[in-house]
Amino acid sequence: MIIFLRRDFLRYTITQNLKQFENLYRSYDLSWVQDSFLRLVFWICSQAKVIGAEKVSIDSLSKENIIDSLEKLWGKRLGSDKSKEAHTASWVFAALTDFNGRLQARDIVRFLYHAAKITVDRTKEIQFERWSTSRLLPPQAIRRALKPCSENKVEEAKEEYPIFKTWVEETLPKHPPAERQIPFAGEEFGIDLPLARTLEEMGVIYEDKEQEDAERFYMPEIFREGLSFSGTGARPRVLALKRKVLGRGIV
User: Fold this and answer.
1) How many CB atoms lie within 10 A of CB 37?
2) Which tens digit of pLDDT belongs to each residue from 77-130?
3) Do residues 105 and 32 lie in contact, with contact meaning Cβ atoms separated by under 8 Å?
4) Contact, 199 vs 205, CB < 8 A?
5) Region at 51 (left for phi over 0; alpha for psi -120 to 50; beta for the rest)
């Protein structure tokens, strides 16, 4: 018999020696890495019968082949191929990943849904005609899809973590979006030690201990948009911190 346990349920069930239990079964941990993320996107394309993706090819194609094939879906970069914009595949992977390096399949599916919906509903606004010769999803649709995806992510996290729900519904409303700037000081938003530990376990925040300032907490895009935090000028540091977790290939 094989039993699959969700990480949040596990934490509520095993109240003692949790780390010991996790370490015991760490070799069986199911997690998404960049390669499996790309193959899931390719599989979704095969199910949708777009970009010529064939389900039977998923296991035989190399990671580089998959990336090349997905350029028909979302382009090589979030701009023209010769621009200095980020590589789309790496940008999406980094944007959907939390500060613990975790990625959920439902976020990938949801992200593609919203990007496609925005493309269909706002064809002229996102200049679909301009990009249609090289990709199905224009850069603007890719970028805008992150906000509704993040909002759904926050709502689900509220159901899974009561302490997070209380923080989002009772503490954050005291601070208008204009005050929610990254980086920030924990005490500024009522984050005490127990809450900080939970948020760090969830991948919602990361304390940049290399900084001596009080304002040294950062938030990944997958939660930031849904919690109405803005990070003008903070993205380079967020990416640098994510590289510590995910590796350098996520630019």
Assistant:
1) 20
2) 999 988 989 899 999 999 999 988 889 999 999 999 999 999 999 999 999 999
3) yes
4) yes
5) left
Give whole-number Cα distances, 191 to 81, 160, 186, 235, in Å: 43, 18, 5, 22
Indicate the range of 3-7, 34-38, 54-58, 159-163 predicted with least confidence: 3-7
- Do 49 and 30 form a contact (C-beta atoms < 8 A)? no
Residue 144, φ and ψ in degrees, nearest 5:
-70, -25
pTM of the full predicted structure? 0.86
> And the tokens for 139?
């850069």
Q: Which of 182, 173, 185, 146 is nearest to 137 (CA)?
A: 146
Q: How far apart are CA 57 and CA 46, in angstroms?
A: 10
- Angle between helices 146-160 and 105-121 in degrees, nearest 10: 140
- Rounded alpha-carbon distances, angstroms, from residue 205 to 5, 7, 125, 222: 24, 18, 34, 11
Scored b (16 or more CB within 10 A) or e, 49-68 reads eebebeeeeeeebeeeebbe
For the chain, the domains span 34-149, 153-250
Phi and psi torsions of 79, nearest 5°? 170, -165
